[in-house]
């Protein structure tokens, strides 16, 4: 049998035993969902040898077996493209008239290029025509449209060599034509250096 003869030796033994017991309890504390549970011991070592640690307070979070319903389903949060639109021609016409807006133009590396957007028409491969006019002189280029979520754009292939244009102010128009729709932009004045 072990005899402890001094109060100091008793306190040391109690503190060591308490620490070992607390460590064992805390290392085994996990909640039912596999995460560590919080433990908060309430006793502190006082140095008198009279305080004993109380049981740690463990509050495991129970695992929920039923998912919590949400206000929206996962498919409600997914963005999707609106359905492709096809303009309706007016009575007696083969194609609907659509608005074409010039959105860009400029000179870079000896080439003049331009672009336009066609709202309400979602089509790939429709024809786009760029026309540059200066008095009696006309320079043209053509390309194909590309679709986006709610419109089509013209720009691919709408390029001419600046050497084909003289310096000065030119009138730029871009036309769009598909099986179902057509339209031409308002003339846009552009300066060629």
Overall structural class, as computed from helix and strand content, comes to mainly beta
Query: Could you give the distance between the termini?
Result: 107 Å
The dominant shape is elongated
The sequence of SSEs as H and E is HEEEEEEEEEEEEE
Give the gist of this structure:
This protein has 193 residues and is mainly beta. It is 11% helix and 35% strand.
Structure overview:
The chain is mainly beta. The chain has 1 helix and 13 strands. The strands form 3 sheets. Strands 3, 6, 7, 11, 12 and 13 form a 6-stranded mixed β-sheet that branches. Strands 4, 5, 8, 9 and 10 form a 5-stranded antiparallel β-sheet that branches. The protein has a two-stranded antiparallel sheet with strand order 1-2. The longest helix has 21 residues, at 7-27.
Can you tag this structure with a few keywords?
35% strand; 6-stranded mixed beta sheet; 193 residues; elongated; 13 strands; mainly beta
Write the layout of secondary structure elements.
Elements lengths: L6 H21 L11 E2 L16 E2 L37 E2 L2 E9 L2 E9 L7 E8 L2 E8 L1 E2 L3 E4 L4 E3 L6 E10 L3 E4 L3 E5 L1
Parallel strand pairs: 3-12
Antiparallel strand pairs: 1-2, 4-5, 5-9, 5-10, 6-7, 6-11, 8-9, 11-12, 11-13
